[in-house]
Amino acid sequence: MTPRNNESEDSLLGDSIDDNLKLKITSKDPNWKPLNNIVWRNVIWYLLLHIGAIYGFSLAYVQAKWFTLVYALILGQVSFIGVTGGAHRLWSHRSYKATFPFRLFLIICNTICGQNSIYDWCRDHRVHHKYSETDADPHNSNRGFFFSHMGWLLCRKHPLVIACGRKIDLSDLLEDPLVVFQREHYLKLFFILGFIVPALIPTLIWSESLWTSFWVCSVARYCSQLHRTWLVNSAAHMWGYRPYDKSIASAENAIVSCLTLGEGHHNYHHTFPWDYSTSEWGWSLNVTTMVIDLAQKVGFVHDCKTVPKEFVNSRCNRTGIKRE
C-alpha cells in the first residue's frame, strides 16, 4: 500500500479557477432556483420509477418466492460494488489500480446499478469534491436535503456546475477502453444488464413469474440502490460527527455506511479523498474495503493508497477533534 501522491490527486481536479469565476461561487445563489429550472422529462421518469418500485415492493411482500427475494438482495449488494469500489474509489479518485478482469467486473456491476456512465459519474463527483457546498457542487447540500438527495437530478445544472466541470481533467478516463465502451453504449447496456437480465434469471432458473421478477429484481432493486447512493450526498453531508475536519459539511454517519457498503465515513473521505478505504478503520462498516482487500490478495488489485496514521492524527489535532 502506498501513501498519497499529491500531484496525481490534485491533477484529477483540474486547474485552479480564475478570479472572476471564484467570486461567483457562493454557498447559495438566490438568483438560481431549482423550481425555475425543472426538467420535466426527469421528473416523469423518476415518478414512474418510484411508482413501479412501490408496486415491486408490494409484490415482494405478497407474491415473490424466497429465492427471488434473496437473489434481488444479493444482486443489489454485489452490483453496488460497481459504484462504491468502481466509479467512486477506482475511477473517480484513482485510489488504487486494478487489472482488466477486475475492472470488467466493476464496470458490469456499475452498469447494473444504472447511475449514468462512469465517465459522467466521475465528472460530477470530481466537481463535487473540488467545490463542495457551493453553487458549483452538483448536489450542493446547502440547498437542503431533498435537493442534495435527488432534487439536483430533476432540474438543470447550475451554470457554475457546468463551467467548473469543464475545467476538470477527465483524460485518464478516456484512456480506459472499458470506460469508453460503456460511455458509448451506456443506455443499451443499462437496459440489458439493469432490467432484462436481472428479471430473466429468476424466471429461467427457478420458474419465478417474469412479471414479478421484473418489478422486484429490476425496478424495486434499482430504485432502492439509487436512494442508497443518494444518502451519501444528502444525509452524510448533514448529520454525523466531524472528527477530521470540523469546517466541512461531510460527516461520519454509521447508518449511511451500513447502507452503502462503507461510504458513510464521509468526513474522513472529504479530508483524505485519495485513501482507497475511505476510512481509517479497515473493514469496520466498510464492505467495499473488504472486497478490495480480498481482490488485492489474489492479485486483481494493487497500489492501494493510504494515509499514514501520524498524518491522520496531525490533521485531527489541527482541524478536527484533538487526539492524544
From TrEMBL:
CDD domains: Delta9-FADS-like (cd03505). Its main location: membrane. InterPro entries: Acyl-CoA_DS, FA_desaturase_dom. The chain crosses the membrane at residues 43-62, 68-87, 186-206. Keywords: Fatty acid biosynthesis, Fatty acid metabolism, Iron, Lipid biosynthesis, Lipid metabolism, Membrane, Oxidoreductase, Transmembrane, Transmembrane helix. GO terms for molecular function: iron ion binding; stearoyl-CoA 9-desaturase activity. Residues 65-273 form the Fatty acid desaturase domain. GO terms for cellular component: endoplasmic reticulum membrane. It comes from the Eukaryota. Pfam families: FA_desaturase. It is found in: Membrane. Its cofactor is Fe(2+). It is a multi-pass membrane protein. GO terms for biological process: unsaturated fatty acid biosynthetic process. Belongs to the fatty acid desaturase type 1 family. The histidine box domains are involved in binding the catalytic metal ions. This is Fatty acid desaturase domain-containing protein.
